[in-house]
Specification:
Two copies of one chain form a homodimer. Chain A contains 16 helices and 17 strands. In chain A, α1 runs parallel beside α7, α2 packs across α6 and α10 packs across α11.
Chain lengths: ~500, ~500
């Protein structure tokens, strides 16, 4: 077994001081410099070649094809942030020029988003590349101009170390300060706490469990200067199967759902953990079709022993709840590392009476809630609480008849999907991977997509500033050619 | 004395249920409907005429001219949000159309900001109109599509009631649900707590003390579903007086500073409570000039007995700290309601050694920190912590030589002012009235200016949604003619 040098609290202090020193210059870097840096990180990750994929496979039990796809996603994510920096409007440059003749006279006021400072990132276990060391949190924070300190996820320390090495190479190539990105190992709570509570740290990104996210939020709150924590924590991603759709092609629907439930051994934040259906003639056939798909599914290894153990425990606990009945489970015996795909059913009354059935079961599991009528279905939907996603499977007629359900979902979720599956999160400007508590700790933001960079910045105004003290984005001459809101009009023009 | 019906916890429940019912339709209202509503509120406030000004004068001790100005600001603020709604780009409509030929295919994804839900507002004592019942928090929340429940500030209950009446008339005129705006009285902590902890409440706006803001933040955190609290709390608004500027016209500078320190009896969130200077030949003359202005200032009544008492206590405490010396105080004897303008000095070493000197003294007080050299001045500036504003008084040469000070200020403050005073906050798109803790509880947002509406909304994505289920701002036909980010390009065009 490889030995990883565990950080001490003194190491954390040194790392954060280095991050503070790096921030002094990195925050002044131009959008183009940061874009090139992000692209260089992508190139260096690609340059790690097969060794990275093989290491990640060994540490995460994920298959090669999945990790190749995830590496592509990670690199594209870095490139997308580079494109965003070059387009430039994301800084929300807003200019109101002076009105000296008004009573009272108005000053010249100009606003833009500036970086918060050093960011601590706790990567996710389930995406060792795309949501980890050089994942969305790191990419968006570096794009924003914030140095990053990543605590390596203990589930894939070697993978994390290799990716960290690639980022450090990019730092050298781009001649950035060493403290722009740092990587520390630490398995105990004390290292995470020291990172969150260090006075230099200005924000935290976290992807993981509800318990972990809340612990980090509380560490941050107890600082003399509380800081924001962006934690993506817990979601059961309800899928509503509407009546006409359900009766049209139960086999195809079952295949789609089972594929999403078992994808990556169910280890997606957006795994469809709850299926909501109304009693109708086609339901028994549909459930049977779903059961058959689950029964025929092949158990695959989970990320690591801890996650498997947690899945088994949580599954057992859920199946022991009043009214919960196993529909089917995978019939192939898995190996000792595999989590067994399983779908259970419960009546709406039992679901509504038991808040524990709303808790995430992280793994290849889904619970079907059977509702006697449309009113009960609406009630079940409303009771699910804050979610990353809601999905509606429905024909046009179904959706026409159920607009209030979509409205309810909009009030509870970050993303509403129609006739697709929630697994699979696109990195693009319009993506929201967020939502009300407990899905995240702050529903104003997303942790995937280009909006993720907004977490690491805040607005600052300059009143009657000389031109030479203004950031380039706010100067009269619009050298960056970015879109700006000038006297309430959008413009790319210079100011006279 | 007028009797105000104190709300009970049962009343709060009823009010919040009414707010929830109103939200169901108010959130669906068009931008134009909300714009007309805000304008109608402005008209109804104006229609209250002199009676409103007289009532506010009696309750707040503020002079007529100030309250006339404040009423104008309140009405203009409502109109500015109406303009923002009509311009429409503030919802951040972002569209990425489907790429069916890509591997893997990309779905059609569309994002915009949607309202959070019913908002509870605790208005400020110091602006009975502009930061209270129909002030910035209420105007921005209504603009965002969120029903509002205001707890009347106990310092001006009659004024608050009259303004609430104007809003309720506007609700009738615009045929909106009664729960769109509600007004409750309650002097005990239990009513505030019940409002913040009611399950219907989705966000809280607060302007007031650090202790009050933190208490509300903790009430919100202890809910089963924690909600965001936007508290504007505490700032001493450092003013750096640079060397050349100080020597040029000490009399004029002293007049400007004393005017800002004593404006409105010092009861501004942006009152300049800290002046930072470097020892130099012109300093004694400058301090004498400032002292003379303060000595000649006329004490004016403070808002109410509680605030006066608190000012006196806090002032006494500050003057008792090691090294703090009174420079001058107002020589005219005030009445029993007035707070005495006073400026004191302290050496940098004593300031740096005593965190209590960084605490806000709410009233007509400022502390001059004398620094032996430039390095000490930089240290004092960095030690001031999170602030609403920083101000630099400097010639072009001063500012050229002190760019690193401006840089430090940018990292700690929400607004950087050059050769002006921090009092006076413009309501415009580029304003930031915010900043790192303890200035506010969330530096990502502003409580003044059009950005204030962003506090009450969150992003939601729609994936492969039929057109009829999309909000108007995201439909192919851009009926609202708003600027949207379509496939990473800004556009007002329809989508084919």
């Amino acid at each position: 077994m490889t030995h990883f040098p565990e950080a001490t609290v003194a190491d954390i202090d040194q790392a954060m001081q280095l991050a503070a020193a790096a921030f002094a210059s990195f925050r002044q870097s131009s959008p183009e410099e940061r874009a090139v840096f992000l692209e260089t990180i992508g190139q260096q990750i690609e340059a790690l070649g097969d060794a990275l994929i093989e290491t990640a496979m060994a540490e995460s039990n994920l298959p090669q094809a999945r990790l190749l796809g995830e590496r592509g996603r990670t690199v594209n994510q870095l490139r997308s942030f580079a494109d965003m920096l070059r387009e430039g409007s994301w800084v929300e440059a807003t200019i109101d020029t002076a009105l000296p003749e008004r009573t009272p006279p108005r000053s010249d006021i100009r606003k833009m988003l500036i970086p918060l400072g050093p960011v601590v990132v706790f990567g996710a276990a389930n995406f060792p590349l795309a949501f980890s060391t050089a994942g969305g949190d790191t990419a968006s924070a570096l794009a924003a101009g914030c140095p990053v300190v990543v605590k390596a996820h203990p589930g894939h320390p070697l993978t994390s170390g290799m990716v960290a090495g690639a980022i450090q190479k990019a730092i050298e190539i781009c001649k950035l300060p060493a403290g722009t990105f740092q990587h520390v190992y630490g398995s105990g709570f004390d290292i995470g706490k020291a990172l969150v509570q260090h006075p230099v740290t200005q924000a935290v990104g976290f992807t993981g469990s509800l318990i972990g996210g809340l612990a980090i939020r509380d560490y941050a709150r107890l600082r003399p200067q509380p800081i924001p924590v962006f934690a993506e924590m817990s979601s059961i991603n309800p899928v509503v199967l509407l009546t006409e759709k359900l009766s049209q092609d139960p086999q195809a629907l079952a295949k789609t759902l089972a594929g999403s439930i078992t994808l990556g051994a169910g280890q997606f934040c957006t795994n469809p953990g709850l299926l909501i259906v109304q009693e109708q003639p086609a339901l028994p056939e549909s459930l049977e079709a779903l059961g058959q798909e689950i029964a025929a599914s092949i158990p695959t290894p989970m990320l690591h022993a801890g996650i498997l153990h947690h899945y088994q425990q949580k599954l057992e606990h859920t199946l022991a709840q009043k009214g919960v009945t196993v529909l089917r489970h995978a019939e192939t015996a898995g190996g000792e590392k595999t989590g067994q795909p399983l779908v259970a059913t419960v009546l709406a009354a039992d679901f509504l009476a038991n808040p524990q059935l709303k808790e995430e079961v992280f793994g290849p599991f889904s619970l079907v809630v059977r509702c006697a009528d449309a009113a009960t279905l609406a009630q079940v939907l409303a009771a699910t609480g804050g979610q990353l996603t809601f999905t509606f499977m429905g024909t046009e007629a179904d959706l026409q008849q159920n607009q209030t359900l979509v409205d309810t979902a909009q009030q509870l979720g970050g993303r509403i999907i129609f006739n697709g599956v929630p697994t699979g999160v696109e990195v693009c400007p319009s993506m929201v991977h967020g939502g009300p508590f407990p899905a995240t700790s702050d529903s104003h933001f997303t942790s995937v997509g280009l909006g993720a960079a907004k977490r690491w910045v805040r607005p600052v105004s300059f009143q009657d500033s000389p031109q030479f003290l203004l950031p380039e984005a706010l100067q009269n001459t619009n050298k960056l050619k970015i879109w700006r809101l000038v006297n309430t009009q959008w413009s790319q023009a210079d100011i006279n």
